[in-house]
Amino acid sequence: MRIQGEVAERLVEVVEQLSQWTGREHLRYGLSNLHTTLGTIEFYRQPIVADDEYIRQYTETLQKVAPHFPPIQIHYRGLTGNQMSVMAQGWPVDETLQRLRTTFHNQIQQEKHLAGPGVRDLAHSSLIVFAGPLHDPQGCVSFIEQQRQTDFGRATIKTLELVKYQRDNVYMARPIILASVPLHS
């Protein structure tokens, strides 16, 4: 679920600010790949070809499910971090996202497709995924703590994208859109 508009621009500014403490030797999200994940269907499979049977099935499932749900609103407020990344905290404004996740996952399971690890319950957006040591770990933690309640705004998701990520190098993961399905408007 791609984040766009003012919220995305604010979050990309945060990535730039974080870089002074993390350095630039990490996977950094930008306007082209900033997102909140609906659900992970597969962890890794190579290769995924144009006429892939699973991709066709996932697309059909999204097309069945998506028209029954309105656009999703997520309020991004605060930063959090762990040993692997820094994330913007996402707070869905209602139960639409979780109902959509559960419905999609159950439909995938019912049709006996690969169902992935389970239904997600977080709505964060990764900003930086660490690929090595940080330039200033204490400064990074301090910045995150100062931003724990920062309001980055509310994003409205109107389209679901089925993507695979192409890792161009250790610092860039580019989404390749396999299908794009609108939510009910």
Task: Throw out a few tags for this protein.
29% strand; two-stranded antiparallel sheet; 2'-5' RNA ligase; 185 residues; Cyclic Phosphodiesterase, Chain: A; alpha+beta
Quick structural summary:
It comes from Dictyobacter kobayashii. With 185 residues, this protein is α+β, with helices and mostly antiparallel strands. Helix content is 30%, strand content 29%.
Walk across the major sheet and give the strand order.
1-4-3-2-5
Q: Whole-number average pLDDT?
A: 92
Q: So, the CATH homologous superfamily?
A: Cyclic phosphodiesterase
Order of helices and strands: HEHEEHEHEEE
Strand content: 25-35%
Low-confidence stretches: none
Assign the CATH class: Alpha Beta
Gap between N and C termini: 16 Å
Number of strands: 7
Which architecture name does CATH use?
Alpha-Beta Complex
Fold-level CATH name: Cyclic Phosphodiesterase, Chain: A
SSE blueprint:
Elements: H1 5-22, E1 27-28, H2 53-65, E2 72-81, E3 85-92, H3 96-110, E4 125-129, H4 137-146, E5 151-157, E6 159-169, E7 172-182
Antiparallel strand pairs: 1-4, 2-3, 2-5, 3-4, 6-7
Verbal overview:
The protein is an alpha+beta fold. It has one domain: Alpha-Beta Complex (Cyclic Phosphodiesterase, Chain: A), CATH 3.90.1140. It contains 4 helices and 7 strands; from the N terminus they run αβαββαβαβββ. The strands form 2 sheets. It has a 5-stranded antiparallel sheet with strand order 1-4-3-2-5. It has a two-stranded antiparallel ribbon with strand order 6-7. Helix 1 runs antiparallel to helix 4 and helix 2 packs across helix 3. The longest helix has 18 residues. It is globular. It starts with a helix and ends with a strand.
